[in-house]
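Dear V.,

Thank you for sending over the compound details. I've combined the ligand you provided, nicotinamide-adenine-dinucleotide, with the protein sequence from our construct and run the structure prediction for the complex. I'm sharing the raw inputs here so there's no ambiguity about protonation or stereochemistry in the SMILES, which I know was a concern on your side last time.
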Amino acid sequence: MEKLGVGYIGLGGRGYGVLNGVIQMNDIEVRAVCDLVEDRMLKGKKLVEDKYGKEIFGTLDYHEILSRDDIDCVLIPTSWNAHYVIAMDAMEAGIPAAFEVGPIASVEQCWDLVRTHERTGVHCMALENCCYGRYEMAMINMIKRGVFGEVVYVGGGYEHDLRGLADNYAGGMERSYHTMCRNGELYPTHELGPMMTYLGINHGNRMLSLTSTSTKARGLQDYIAKHGGKEHPMYGKQINNGDITTTVIKCANGENMVLTHDITLPRAYSRGGRVQGTNGIWMEDGNHLYLDGMNEDHSWANMDDYIDKYDHPLWKKYKEKDVHDAHGGMDTLVLRAFFESVKNHEAPPIDVYDSVCMMVVSCLSEQSIAMGSMPVPIPDFTNGKWVKREELPKSPYSLYEIHDDLFEKKSFKYFDFLK
Ligand SMILES: NC(=O)c1ccc[n+]([C@@H]2O[C@H](COP(=O)([O-])OP(=O)(O)OC[C@H]3O[C@@H](n4cnc5c(N)ncnc54)[C@H](O)[C@@H]3O)[C@@H](O)[C@H]2O)c1
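Below is the predicted structure of the protein with nicotinamide-adenine-dinucleotide bound, written out as structure tokens.
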């Protein structure tokens, strides 16, 4: 079998972890690795070489990967500010690129990605793994099958105690600096990616405008006072990012999306998912499901009792494989969605328009907060195509449509990479 040659750029915590999964796939060959930090590059290089039993190329300069002729695509799990630059350079070099998730710095960067894709015909994709989470995909399935009736409201959040970011500041972790310097919804994609698929954003619907509001920032300095005090390298530094940022997005078809960014106070992890329509509601917190007429006393049902029934057909197949990665299987699925699109020379299920829409909310929320929560328009990156999109590639990984016939085939070959 002809293997797909992958260039791998960014070998921090996430990059190294995901690399371990990529090299297990039997149709993929990681041919070159890169990080700005030599130790990290060498550690990643060794991981691949130990697995393949042969030497691979390693560099501190990603341009050296883009100029090779054995690279079919690149993965970019770098820190946030580098996603855009490397993805742009990859598309210019004719190499499809998938970058890890995070905020973007400006609307202009989003347009650059869109226009570079449109000019070169080369694709890029945000690796939003949560779009492939089991519950998120069950929601796509339930919505498409009309279980919630007409959906009017969706919610979600990045609600994750990351106060340890303060400890990473001294090591120069870029993310700590974003939290220190910017005030906005800095990590919208984990919830917004799935929410966009629920409401058909860029596919008959679009996000029109947003308002964003942040609380004061107290969590990190409280944490620092309790963990090192005056000796802590971040002690007394100005923190701009409010502890909780709430963003409300208005959609063309009348729905509201509500996003919560909540990373600097003590809490249990949640993506705070919520889908509500004329026939019922799902709430991730509490694992709640309620469908009209379900219980006479209006009490909640447990979503876990219904998940097998409502699983997306992709997950019905996937469960049989019993795959466990760092995030319960969704990391593998999002990577496969990208790799399959590269193999087929077609647009990925999260295309450039979807990718920039997920990210642009970060810098627009900063603008709204800076102007006292004023509404800010969200650009239509499709330039009108959202009203009637061209037919998209038919794939089991499609997020905006479910192609039941692909799952009915006896020879479902999409998980052969696990053999
Ligand atoms: N999808 C998920 O579930 C998930 C989970 C964790 C992290 N992430 C994302 O993964 C990305 C990386 O996160 P992390 O925690 O590993 O961060 P990190 O800071 O630990 O690692 C980033 C790495 O990128 C390298 N880098 C930066 N610019 C580079 C360049 N120009 N060329 C080569 N290497 C460069 C840095 O040296 C560093 O080693 C971020 O976008 C983060 O938001 C996603």
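A first observation: Residues 9-15, 34-37, 40, 62, 77-80, 82, 100-102, 129, 173-174, 327 surround nicotinamide-adenine-dinucleotide (CB under 6 Å).

Warm regards,
I. M.
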